[in-house]
Amino acid sequence: MIKISKQEHNIVLKYEPDYTQKNWIKEAFSKDESIYLARKSFLFTNENLIEMKVDDNSEVEYYLFLIGTFKDKYYEIDKDILELTNTLFLHKELKIDKKTFLATNNISIFNKIDELVKEPIVIGGEKSNAIPLNEFEVLQKLFPTSTTLQHFAQSRISKIIKDYLHTTTDAEDKLEKHFNRQQKSADDLHGKKNEKPLIKIEALRTHELEKYWYIKHSVEAMLKDSDSYSEYDWQTIIIEFVLLLFPKYIAVIKEMPVKDYYTEPSKPKIRKIDFGLIDANGNVDIIEIKKPFKDVLLYKRKYRDNYTPKKDLSGTIMQVEKYIFHLNKWGIVGEKALNKKYHSILPSDMKIKVINPKAMIIMGRDNDFIDEQNFDFSIIKKQTTNMIDFMTYDDLLRRLSNIIEKFETKHIIKEN
Description:
By secondary structure, the chain is of the alpha+beta class. It is built from twelve helices and 16 strands.
């Protein structure tokens, strides 16, 4: 059990170990080893220990650790304990407890903020770069639904998806009916060996139609309740749909590495691309999947009679273009590195090839655009069409609708 509170001029973490494991900290410190608490949210050494006590009433053993000290209206938190890159300051008026540091499932709030900034993190007070106390309180309440659920096991993720599909859309029922029809069609075909091939093609068409309806209903249901899904949720679900919509891709590489020789030539960095896609020929492409926020594409005010891209949009495009640039520059050396790292997920006779990689971006909504905005947005997309396929979530639904209409009207082959 963990409790965090202000004590005199310090912030102290009180830890009460489980009775069955009460000596594990003593044993670790006796060997000069460090320990983690709250699923690696807090890292302590013996130097951080204030004292070990035994409660007079319950006779339960507990430990007190120093995690912050007071100076000039702020508590400075030991960044090594939270494994932060940036210094952390908490104003004296901020309520300090366990929830100040940990969100649901012991996710470290400040660790996640630290990943996004390159300057001191200041909560409250009058400093120019301080996050106001009321804004931080809002962040605390929203954090569990807006952060990636990286600590969940795959079984938990599967359950989320299954529960969601079951409760918010009839796609599961449609899929079940499809399987029944598919089995009946297979039985019929089995007993009619002399039927023309067109009958088999019709069965495949039915299968494809159900697949696209299933994806469309699922995406529509998710968009109606988009705030309840983190970006990790969106990425986990949409990447599966991408593989169904673009069957040429046979493998997905999460956090695919690419070497950046240009930012610091003397010390090349390894960048991580959210998802790498490997097609049936071994060629690598990339994809960026963002949450379907509405107001991230175009500024509402015109600039010289034009609707211009917002930072979210231009920043994502620039990021993807840089990834493509770095992949191309990595070249043959990169191919060898990727093949060595990921050969186990590929067919035995396939090699990853970096040859003019393309990118796909799925982000934002355009369902409330006026005609002028649609026109300007189409121009923005065409500027990168040679290397980037850009889709909003409404684009995705429109494409699905057009594909469904094609299968329903059977306008695949037109006769004169």
